[in-house]
Design brief:
It is built from 21 helices and twelve strands. By secondary structure, the protein is an alpha/beta fold. The chain has three domains: 8-266, Rossmann fold (3-Layer(aba) Sandwich), CATH 3.40.50.150; 296-386, no CATH class; 403-577, GIY-YIG endonuclease (3-Layer(aba) Sandwich), CATH 3.40.1440.10.
């Protein structure tokens, strides 16, 4: 079957299927073949003699070479046992040229008893024409600021930065702020393997690549609209990432079940969807440096506190730092200075809830030549706040919303929080915290848009402050719900009614807890309100709910005499009914 713009996964032997494809029809091929280490796949036992395995590898790589366009690239993932053999075959027998030999270093490797535990895979970047091939070197996701710009403040530095260096590495989570750590920008790449407990994991396949790793390869070696091909589709990660990044895609897969499961994974994906997995693998790795035997005392903080009096603009230009300066520590110090400048003494919560303050912070980071992106800077700022390495705010924080506006907007903040996770969530387990959402440009924008569709007429700051207030109050509500479970268990909603203007008017001024239902009485949302009539009218007219909500039910008074128990009652009802829009996971 010729490869066209029509995306598909073909079932069958990849060599036979590739032989049916026309020459020069693929722009980028990525292959993660069986490593011949005895693994039992669905339809294939990965155990051949050395000669048979190398002959088979030569056959399918020859077909990849034939299928590639003259400027195409081929990336191969392979283990230690045959890495050198396959490189020789590709270079000297088939006609590829090696551009890079990358090492993918991962955590969650298989533990070994009689040798060092394996924690890496080789990634070969082959090209068909050594002079003409796609390599998006100016992509900001690939380039990094140079030491000339970062350390010495040299104005002659290329503003686009430079390509990464080679590295020697140790486990990054053990040395996150030590000079022996390493960064994900080097050609030894650190991405966590997709372990069985990860949200990203597709349970039907035992060997799954992380989406962020494929994202780097597809971004650098292809253009939007190019055809990306995977002869060993497996769980479908290559094709999923290609689809998200606006590439055409095709694959081959021997197993009928894997074809069906991977197709199901690909069906709901849309171009522009966020890649699963953390973009900063080092930042997301749990550090072991603060274990029980290595606890730091208050007298020995991880890094010195930032002193506002030390801040002077253009400090790097005025006083270049010595070459031996630790870059990671310098990064953190400059980030703290950028925060002090942009926040003018405000708290971190003020900054992440205010888009204007965030813009000022990101501008200040950029002026200092900081490595990374606005998302990374936000996340690092939150980490420094959590570890106590930022000075306390010197200005009063943004006042909490008055009770009545909070009642009008907080339900929308909860819905937006839940739906943002549903759409963009990438954590390996649990749910993204509101701080994680607001620290990322894409997720914070989605959160703001979603909240405005459920409660129009408020600002981004209103929605974000309401979400933070919900985050702070929810543990107490949950504790009270458990305390009074014996009382709440006897309460439930009245019979469901149709949501109409007349029904909402009848509840004007009445406080209580309510349930929204959709088609076939599906539970959509449980909330509390000081004025049920006004709240239900909001749902009746809001863009996101006026067509989805068909009915409602209420309980007019709290389970206990005091009205303050409406919120714990709501939490208890959410636990029982599990409506779609409520934040049901631990946050």
């Amino acid at each position: 079957m010729p490869v066209t713009s029509q995306a598909a996964i073909q079932q069958g032997d990849c060599i036979q299927l590739m032989r049916e494809m026309p020459a020069e029809c693929i722009d980028l091929a990525f292959a993660d073949p069986p490593f011949n280490i005895g693994y039992q796949y669905d339809k294939y036992h990965d155990e051949q003699t050395d000669d048979d395995y190398l002959d088979w590898s030569r056959s399918w790589m020859e077909e990849v070479h034939r299928l590639l366009t003259p400027t195409g690239s081929f990336w191969l993932a392979i283990g230690d046992e045959y890495a050198a053999d396959l490189k020789v075959i590709a270079d000297r027998q088939i006609g590829f040229t090696t551009r890079s030999w990358v090492v993918w270093y991962y955590t969650f490797g298989v533990n070994c008893k009689r040798k060092f535990s394996r924690s890496h895979v080789h990634l070969f970047h082959f090209v068909k024409d050594p002079d003409q091939f796609t390599f998006n070197a100016d992509d900001p996701n690939i380039r990094i600021p140079s030491a000339r710009a970062l350390v010495y403040g040299d104005k002659r530095a290329n503003p686009k930065g430079r390509l990464p260096d080679d590295t020697w590495i140790l486990r990054p989570q053990d040395f996150q702020s030590d000079q022996y750590g390493f960064d994900t920008v080097d050609d030894t790449w650190y991405f966590s393997r997709v372990a069985g407990t990860f949200k990203e994991r597709q349970g039907f396949h035992g060997c799954q690549m992380p989406e962020q790793l494929l994202g780097r390869i597809i971004r650098v070696s292809s253009q939007p609209g190019d055809v990306v091909f995977d002869p060993f589709t497996g769980s479908g990660t290559t094709l999923a990432v290609a689809k998200k990044l606006g590439r055409k895609w095709r694959g081959c897969e021997l197993s009928e079940d894997y074809v069906r499961y991977a197709g199901g994974r690909l069906a709901p994906i849309r171009e522009g969807d966020r890649l699963n997995g953390p973009t900063d693998a080092i930042g997301s790795a749990p550090t072991t440096a603060n274990g029980r035997r290595l606890k730091r005392t208050k007298e020995q903080p991880l890094l010195p506190m930032f002193d506002p009096s030390d801040f002077t603009p253009q400090r790097l230009q005025d006083q270049p730092l010595a070459p031996e300066t630790d870059i990671r520590q310098l990064q953190q110090q400059l980030l703290g200075e950028a925060f002090l400048q942009a926040g003018e003494g405000r708290s971190v919560d003020d900054l992440i809830t205010n888009p204007q303050l965030q813009d000022a912070f990101h501008k200040a980071c950029g002026e200092r030549g900081l490595l990374g992106t606005p998302n990374v800077w936000n996340q690092e700022l939150l980490r420094l706040r959590k570890s106590g390495e930022l000075p306390p705010p010197t200005r009063e924080t943004t006042p909490a919303l008055p009770a009545t506006p909070l009642d009008q907007v907080q339900f929308a903040a909860e819905i937006a929080w839940q739906l943002t996770n549903e759409k963009l969530g990438t954590a390996s387990s649990g749910i993204m915290s509101i701080e994680e959402i607001l620290s990322h440009g894409e997720s914070s924008a989605f959160f703001d848009r979603t909240a405005s569709r459920y409660a129009p007429g408020f600002t981004s700051v209103d929605y974000r402050c309401a979400a933070l207030d919900f985050h702070e109050q929810r543990p107490a509500w949950t504790a009270d719900a458990k305390t009074y479970d014996y009382v709440f268990a006897t309460r439930d909603f009245e019979k469901s009614r149709k949501l109409t203007p007349r029904a909402t008017a009848a509840l004007a001024g009445v406080p209580g807890v309510y349930l929204l239902t959709g088609a076939r009485r599906t539970p959509l949302f449980i909330g509390q309100a000081l004025d049920l009539g006004a709240r239900l009218q909001q749902h009746l007219t809001a863009p996101a709910t006026k067509r989805k909500v068909t009915g409602f039910a209420v309980i007019f008074q709290s389970a206990l005499p005091s009205g303050e128990y409406r919120a714990p009652l709501m939490v208890d009802f959410v636990r029982r009914h599990k409506p779609r829009w409520n934040l049901t996971d631990k946050a």
